[in-house]
Write a structure and sequence with these properties.
signal; alpha/beta; seven-stranded mixed sheet; single chain; Leucine-, isoleucine-, valine-, threonine-, and alanine-binding protein; Rossmann fold; globular; Peripla_BP_I; 3 domains; BCAA_transport; five-stranded parallel sheet
Length: 388
């Protein structure tokens, strides 16, 4: 009988301990809103991921200082996808199933984001990429992905902007397209540029390709040089862009090179050198020379926090943070489905890069800029506002 009483007492104590443990965990969780960050913290495009994270952290810090959301503090749980698609998928799975986040920021690149969207759809957890511009991220076979969103404009807009810039501003009649064949981002941009440049009466003389992490581009550049185009369209990321421009100028290729937001990183000047980037232009989401008061305030806040100028990836990360914080606040809930609904209903929200409305395909309607590189410095060239 005594053994039975002792066993019963031990069982009661164990159960109390279990319940106390559960209660403690539940109490802790109720005071925190856990958001995931699936980013390229190491690897070939780590600069993009880390800068986007800096922007997100600043938005979260400001929100927490203002009291958080629903009286709760926001916590950012980061996972490093190492700039690889397979790792990005693993990171998304971990954040959802192990870390139990209610929404995810990232990844930074289109290819890595495309590798994760199905995970978010299957688990019904919103994913918001600050900088993934490929249109397939939010739309699959003509249907909007319910849980996929972005805070940047999409590739067709960039391709259209640069095709019009080539035709109208530079009066180019011929072009060669030089793409990163390992990048969905690069391929999508090339297609939209070619479509509109041709419609404008231009001729694409040829297409060449390289792969991410290539070092020597002289063979394909020799082919491009022989075609002597008015412009070369190079939709790629800063590491390869810097090396290509350096080698191209060494070969006497002085025609304008055109690019997109993948160029928008200070590292491109370190890699190419200032002079080789002269006579090159790219589209982006943000210019530090913009005098809009919201841009000015964001730059001041960022410089105070990090002691340096923000890049476009920092600005878009900050915008993504504001977009998510606003959605959770309006949803008044940490239910992923309600957060999804609120993101979808975003209208005329003031972000650092301008007013944003989320369209039916979960893409933001927003302005873009064209930037010229001159002696290693970015010079604001023109601003383009899409028709609503």
């Amino acid at each position: 009988m005594r053994k039975k009483l002792v066993a019963a007492a031990m069982s009661t104590l164990l159960m109390a301990g279990v319940l106390a443990g559960c209660g403690g965990g539940a109490k802790e969780e109720t005071n925190v809103i856990k958001l995931g960050g699936n980013f390229e913290l190491t690897g070939s495009v780590a600069n993009y991921g880390n800068q986007a994270v800096n922007g997100i952290k600043l938005a979260i810090k400001q929100a927490n200082a203002a009291g958080g959301i629903m009286g709760k503090q926001i916590t950012l749980v980061l996972a490093d996808n190492k700039s690889e698609a397979a790792e990005a998928t693993n990171a998304a799975t971990k954040l959802i199933t192990q870390d139990k986040v209610v929404a995810i920021f990232g990844p930074a690149t289109s290819s890595n984001t495309l590798a994760t969207v199905q995970v978010s759809q299957d688990n019904k957890v919103p994913v918001l990429t600050p900088t993934g511009t490929n249109e397939k991220i939010t739309v699959d076979n003509g249907k909007t992905r319910p849980y996929a969103f972005r805070s940047c404009f999409i590739d067709p807009l960039q391709g259209t902007i640069m095709a019009n810039f080539a035709s109208n501003t530079l009066t180019a009649k011929t072009a060669v397209i030089y793409i990163d064949n390992s990048s969905d981002y690069s391929k999508g941009l090339a297609q939209s540029f070619e479509t509109l440049f041709t419609q404008n009466g231009g001729q694409v003389l040829g297409k060449e390709a390289f792969l991410q992490k290539d070092q020597d581009f002289k063979s394909t550049l020799t082919k491009i040089k022989a075609l002597n185009p008015d412009v070369v369209f190079l939709p790629a990321y800063y590491e390869e862009v810097g090396k290509i421009l350096k080698q191209a100028r060494e070969m006497g290729m002085n025609m304008p090179f055109l690019g997109t937001d993948g160029w928008d990183d200070a590292k491109v000047v370190e890699i190419a050198g200032a002079a080789p980037l002269n006579n090159s232009f790219f589209s982006s989401h943000f210019s530090s020379q913009d005098t809009d008061p919201h841009v000015v305030k964001f730059i001041a806040d960022y410089k105070q926090e990090y002691g340096q100028e923000p890049s476009v990836f920092s600005a878009l990360g900050y915008d993504a943070g504001l977009l998510m914080i606003d959605a959770i606040t309006r949803a008044n809930s940490t239910d992923p489905a309600k957060i999804r609904d609120a993101l979808e209903q975003t209208k005329n929200l003031q972000l650092s890069t301008g007013l944003v409305t989320i369209d039916a395909n979960h893409n933001p309607i927003k302005s873009a800029v064209v930037i010229e590189m001159k002696d290693g410095q970015q010079i604001f060239k023109e601003k383009v506002t899409p028709k609503l």
